[in-house]
Amino acid sequence: MKKIIHLITAFAFLGMLISCGNNSQNIKKKQGALGSNAAEKVYVAPGEYDEYYAFISGGFSGQLSVYGLPSGRLFKVIPVFSQDAEKAWGYNEETKPMLNTSHGFVPWDDAHHPDISQTNGVVDGRWVFINGNNTPRIAKIDLTTFETTEIIEIPNSAGNHSSSFVTENTEYVVAGTRFSVPIPQRDMPIKEYKGNFKGSLSFISVDPEDGGMDLKFQIMMPGFDYDLAHPGRGASHGWFFFSTYNTEEASTLMEVNASQNDKDFIAAVNWKKAEEYIKAGKGKMMPAKYAHNVYNEKTHTATSTMKDEVLMLDASELPGLVYLLPTPKSPHGCDVDPSGEYIVGNGKLSANLTIHSFTKMLAAIEAKKFDGEAYGIPILKFEDVLAGVVDQAGLGPLHTEFDGKGNAYTTFFISSEVVKWKLGTWEVVDRQPCYYSVGHLMIPGGNSREPFGDYVLAMNKITKDRYLPTGPEVTQSAQLYDISGDKMELLLDFPTIGEPHYAAGIRADIVMKNSKKIYKLEENEHPFAVKTEADTKVVRDGNVVHVYMTMIRSHFAPDNIEGIKVGDKVYFHVTNLEQDYDVPHGISMIGANTSELLIMPGQTETFLWEPKQVGVWPFYCTDFCSALHQEMQGYVRVSPA
Length: 641
Ligand code: CUK
Ligand code: CUA
Prior knowledge:
With about 650 residues, the protein is mainly beta. Strands 6, 7, 8, 9, 10, 11, 12, 13, 14, 18 and 19 form an eleven-stranded mixed β-sheet that branches. Helix 1 (about 5-20) packs across helix 2. [4Cu:2S] cluster binds near residues 112, 113, 161, 332 and 502.
């Protein structure tokens, strides 16, 4: 899908900038600093589509935002781990169970790393997975509806940072704990961390048909901090690689403690071996409390189930399950190239990048060339697994992506740049500054066997003067570079939602072909759905009242409700009878301790209203749905208890 370039319009736009007053001189100058055709390259004409979807994590916003590339236009914020009043996520009765955990209802999380499902090592556009760090969870977003349809809590984990990355056929979405904790959790002195606190790596299977997730097993690991991870692919399919720090196993990470060791590890986990051990009965069931929440698109409701045990494999007891690859200076990112041969460890306190060889790793394992077993797990010799070093590439390397043409791109947080280097020769071939202090970067399909190597998106931690000031808190931002030529070219800055940690990108047509446009009314199996106005009713059961309501342009039925009393619990179950694409209606009730509902055609949603005051109280449609939208309203009469 080649983007159509509208030269005339783009030039007119530039001309407009040039001809404006004094302030726009600055604007013009900034634009002028770029290559002359940067504007053309990101310009998507009105009515045209972008070439790529970019799913950008919202960090502390808890959500996942959907952008188009190359334009940088925001299309949607998909609510995942935080309540969202705009879409009633976590406010309506249907979705509240999605935010349930073993700690109760937890309507916030810190969303870091989205990853798109894959088939044969290629992104297939079926689902996006993303981790919640704080109360460890993995969510699945269905890309036919762009809605979160499953959230599974991760027990024996805290921080959940090395998550959520998928294997080559989405056999598993994998999560790793950041903090080591007592497993199982118990009351014990923090000072006794060493040897007692444990790490865990979680393998959540994904049903290839319906995408159903299941926490299949966990691997008990030494008490390190597990930072990031990536799957093997091609020859290394069946392995998973995790970067670690705090291999000193210190309970406090003041500088002195945490970085004593010159080298930490990348842990290489053989999950096919894990499956063999499970078949042989080597796993042990352990108590573990966690919630598994599923949203059903037919009933439009979520159910939350509490689980109480998990299958555990102990890495120190099962030979061949895990090996440790020494990696200098607190590795952060842990990235695997498209061939599956190279494992890049980005030591965040280093100027160099360490690249391990999967082939050499296998050879060293075969030859049993180990450097001790400090944690009950074989440690390989650094020199034996080393493929190469990118020397003095920059300061503070964090993350690496690949273009599928033999190049790698690494972000450097401290020196604030993206550095392009060659796999195999390890030479730096280009570098471009970032504004400022870049964290992750993303090439669409970059975490697969076949990246789409046209663009790289850098996600920055600091923006300072890049945008109009908005008080002390300014936006975070992303920057888009064209990488189709020898030299990277900065094309665009655009603001992002929350803190963009990681992103996942895919060619738009792969997702669009499965995009759902409408919920069919006849398929609506919501227990409180009504399919015609004739079936609407108000049913009282003690002090609980169920209002079976419908909405269609441009009225509610019923729209005058009497017989409600102060102290009642009134559930409004509202069905949108429309069957046209893009005709949602909303509803909100005065004084309701919840958000509005935004209901798609054919869908039913419910909110709870507990009237506190006698009177006649109005409700109205919150979405401008027709010329008579303003007439779409009603009254509820509330009498004394
Ligand atoms: S982390 Cu954000 S820059 Cu949570 Cu992926 Cu490395
Ligand atoms: Cu329905 Cu506005």
